[in-house]
Design brief:
Radius of gyration: 12 Å
Order of helices and strands: EEHHEHH
Strand order of the largest sheet: 2-1-3
CATH architecture: 3-Layer(aba) Sandwich
Number of strands: 3
Helix content: 25-40%
CATH topology: GIY-YIG endonuclease
Number of helices: 4
Length: 94
């Protein structure tokens, strides 16, 4: 059964990016190595600070849209509730 992920990446200065994928390790690698032009490569956003797992793409996309609609303060609270030290959850993956 395939899984889908909603994730939040941060830069060292805590610029945030929320995304959705069916392969979290690959997607984080792409962001970290700036393989995707755009926001994350421009703002050095590559630290995986939060993620959730879903069974369907529809659930994941709905959650991504919900989080993207939040104010920054609420996104920070979500990260800090689950990862208070803002550690890179993908650090051991490489």
């Amino acid at each position: 059964m395939e899984q889908y992920f909603v994730y939040i990446l941060a830069s060292p200065s805590r610029t945030l990016y929320t995304g959705v994928t069916n392969n979290l390790a690959r997607r984080v690698y792409e962001h970290k190595h700036k393989l995707i032009p755009g926001f994350t490569s421009r703002y050095n956003v590559g630290l995986l600070v939060y993620f959730e797992t879903f069974n369907t793409p529809q659930e994941a996309i709905a959650r991504e849209k919900q989080i993207k609609g939040w104010v920054r303060r609420k996104k920070i609270a979500l990260v800090e509730e689950n990862n208070p030290s803002w550690e890179d959850l993908s650090e051991a993956w490489e």
